[in-house]
Design brief:
By secondary structure, the protein is mainly α. It is built from six helices and no strands. α2 packs parallel to α4, α3 runs antiparallel to α4 and α4 runs antiparallel to α5.
Amino acid sequence: MNAVLIASLRKQCGGPRDGALLRFSLGNALLADGELQAAIDELRRALGFDPVYSAAWKLLGKACLDAGQPQAAAEAWRNGIAAAAQRGDKQAEKEMTVFLRRLEKTRP
């Protein structure tokens, strides 16, 4: 099922509906499918369309952490916290702050 969804989303890339939401959806599907680097790439593309898309920053941090890139995850969450604050998305800001604190506690 996920392969069908991923294929469908990829067909729309580069077309008139290409944008942050499409790339976020594709990144989310790729992450769920275990394609970590492809998910990271698509989430970065989503942020290229909308740099204050807090949900994309949050998911990018998760994808980076899952891919064994804790520094990239921390950077994504820091940028996401700033984006969420700019956008007034208090819930996302709080969630990413918690994720970042947990990550910083586990790092030497």
